[in-house]
Design brief:
It is a single chain. The protein contains 13 helices and eleven strands. It is of the alpha/beta class. The strands form two sheets. Strands 3, 4, 5, 6, 7, 8, 9, 10 and 11 form a nine-stranded parallel beta sheet that branches. Strands 1-2 form a two-stranded antiparallel ribbon. Strand 1 and strand 2 form a beta hairpin. The longest helix has 19 residues.
């Protein structure tokens, strides 16, 4: 068992605490997911990424409320922003501030092809001048008491030019006043395939010294989080895909940080309780008609902690309404059996 000295995480003046937080996850990290993570031990989370264009033009209608909804129980919470044009980007940041987010995070890491084609996300790693213009404008318009952070990948590709651009943006962003930067160990070109280079994170941390750096990439189990912190020296880590359907990862990591043994996976009745709570929160936000189908993807992820995960996964894939969700829980989770850790395969360097 690997343990490291426990140092609470701060982002600017915002006190986070546990240095293992939930990343922004497109299509997933809405208010219900963030709140479940909070109740299961997460100290901080980020909303799913918002487009600046959408925020600037969105109308105050009921069907749009969930995008900017914040439950007071989940604070502190970060709002992540993505866009192409510096001025509009900063206008979008103002909207996130008005919505009440405690931290504003700039996305320079999204590797999705459609996003790159529209000069957003990871595309900015190829153009340091534009990227830093976005950072400076955002820092200038956001209230000084609200920290601004940046999410990056280690470059567009493995070329020397990409590396040079990365460090130009990294250094320039800190100089512009960002409170912390998160670096993912893969390139944009890699997307989610191949190794996440943790050694690069160590190099970056050595380069920036005392400034706050968070690491990301290949964090699918509680021990992975501690391993990354110990191996790289980062101040904290952001758990992305590893947190979907497994909010218990945060409490498990906290126990390890405190030198305690790794807790066993939650037993099936405990899983069922959390899953029903998650569904009810989503139903309150989206309504009964929309909620069922939207929750399928979460049920599929939760099923990985069940010893009969393949059969359970198939059952969740057919969910349409709350009664069917409860039916799956009654069928598969009523027996007091131990859960399992979700499987994962790591190719980190």
């Amino acid at each position: 068992m690997t343990t490291i000295p426990y140092t609470p995480l701060n982002i600017g003046h915002v006190q986070i605490g546990l240095p293992i937080v939930q990343a922004a996850l497109s299509g997933y990290s809405d208010a219900p997911m963030r709140l479940m993570a909070r109740r299961c031990g997460a100290s901080y989370s980020l909303c799913e990424v918002m487009l600046d264009k959408f925020l600037v033009s969105v109308k105050p209608r009921a069907r749009n409320d969930h995008f900017l909804y914040i439950n007071q129980e989940e604070r502190p919470v970060g709002g992540q922003l993505m866009g192409a044009e510096p001025e509009q980007f900063s206008q979008g940041a103002v909207k996130l501030v008005e919505a009440g987010f405690d931290v504003i995070d700039i996305n320079f890491g999204c590797p999705v092809k459609k996003v790159l084609g529209r000069c957003r996300g990871g595309f900015h790693l190829s153009q340091p001048e534009v990227a830093l213009d976005i950072v400076r404008r955002t820092r200038d318009v956001v209230r000084h008491d609200i920290p601004v952070t940046v999410k990056m990948r280690r470059g567009v590709d493995n070329s020397q030019e990409s590396r040079d651009n990365f460090f130009a943006i990294l250094d320039g962003a800190y100089d512009a006043g960002v409170a912390a930067i998160t670096v993912h160990g893969r390139t944009v070109e890699q997307r989610y395939d191949g190794p996440s280079r943790w050694d690069f994170l160590r190099e970056v941390k050595e380069h920036i010294g005392e400034r706050i750096l968070l690491g990301s990439g290949d964090l699918f189990a509680a021990q992975d989080c501690l391993d990354m912190m110990q191996r790289t020296g980062v101040n904290g880590v952001t758990v992305a895909r590893g947190a979907i359907g497994n909010p218990w990862i945060f409490q498990q990591a906290k126990e390890l940080l405190h030198g305690h043994p790794l807790p066993a996976p939650p037993r099936l009745p405990e899983q069922a309780e959390v899953m029903l709570e998650h569904f009810c929160l989503a139903e309150q936000m989206y309504g009964a008609k929309r909620c069922g189908i939207m929750m399928r993807k979460f049920g599929i992820k939760y099923s990985a902690l069940h010893p009969d995960h393949e059969q359970v996964r198939q059952s969740f894939a057919k969910i349409r309404v709350k009664e069917e969700w409860k039916g799956v829980l009654d069928r598969w989770y009523s027996e007091d059996r131990p859960g399992v850790f979700p499987p994962h395969e790591i190719h980190r360097l």
